[in-house]
DNA sequence: CGGGATCCTTATCGATACTG
DNA sequence: CAGTATCGATAAGGATCCCG
């Protein structure tokens, strides 16, 4: 009955426990900024404010907490060099570099298919308009 | 200076416009539930309450708005059969099926690497404990 | 420079009630 | 069954100030 015959079945039809497991894991990384930060760090280590510039419109509070989460999950390392002014460098760990691959896959897909998404949005709006 | 030499460079070092583009696109799909719903629908069409059971701990309100977003972005189709009781079936569109691939990649990575994440969390907690 | 602490403003979510 | 509408709780986010 399954529509997919992928070799590794990670689906969770009827397996709600596994589905919840995936859910919790995805929830940890699928916030608005984590993947973006991982992507930027994939180009090399960054210091806090450099990271903030590269990521875009992110507040320092949110970036700080995002980095804490990423560090907690083992994606990012935080290296403090005690000089004046203090210097803190963020870099991807081995796990973070591994994670970069699926993230890039996703990012590339999204970039490549954004026209299709835009078209769908226009059609959706048109459909809604004539109700 | 880049640490990656991937063929298709979708990174955004110094290209903040592109980065923001990716940011907006990722933000549209990287909420807590969208990928999960796409995954479940990847196993075949579902009606509202069946979907709700399969996804897990999601309220009807959030599922409804998630489905609206997915429909708006062209990932999911909504087919109403006017019978009593009313019957509404959700299914992946072509775009949604395409999207399934990077989503599965991500889900499989997360499943496979959750032990590493767990270990990192324990180590992080241990480090924090001796400050 | 790299944040933590605080306050305040918004989204977000869950529960309940109600409609076709 | 498949939702929408409304309300209250709660979490997320921005702005500002401050410290090492």
From TrEMBL, chains A, B:
Keywords: DNA-binding, Transcription, Transcription regulation. InterPro entries: HTH_HxlR, WH-like_DNA-bd_sf, WH_DNA-bd_sf. Residues 19-118 form the HTH hxlR-type domain. SUPFAM superfamilies: Winged helix' DNA-binding domain. One of its GO terms (molecular function) is DNA binding. Gene3D superfamilies: Winged helix-like DNA-binding domain superfamily/Winged helix DNA-binding domain. It comes from the Bacteria. It holds the Pfam family HxlR. This is Transcriptional regulator. It comes from Sphingomonas gei. The lineage of its organism: Bacteria, Pseudomonadati, Pseudomonadota, Alphaproteobacteria, Sphingomonadales.
């Amino acid at each position: 009955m399954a529509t997919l015959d992928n070799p590794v079945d990670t689906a969770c039809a009827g397996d709600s426990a596994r589905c919840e497991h995936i859910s919790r894991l995805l929830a940890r990384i699928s916030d608005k900024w984590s993947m973006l930060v991982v992507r930027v760090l994939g180009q090399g280590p960054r210091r806090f404010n450099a990271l903030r510039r590269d990521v875009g419109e992110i507040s320092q509070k949110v970036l700080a907490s995002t980095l804490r989460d990423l560090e907690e999950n083992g994606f990012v390392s935080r290296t403090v060099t005690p000089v004046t002014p203090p210097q803190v460098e963020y870099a991807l760990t081995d796990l973070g570099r591994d994670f970069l691959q699926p993230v890039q896959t996703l990012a590339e897909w999204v970039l490549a298919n954004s026209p299709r998404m835009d078209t769908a949005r226009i059609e959706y709006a048109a459909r809604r308009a004539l109700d």
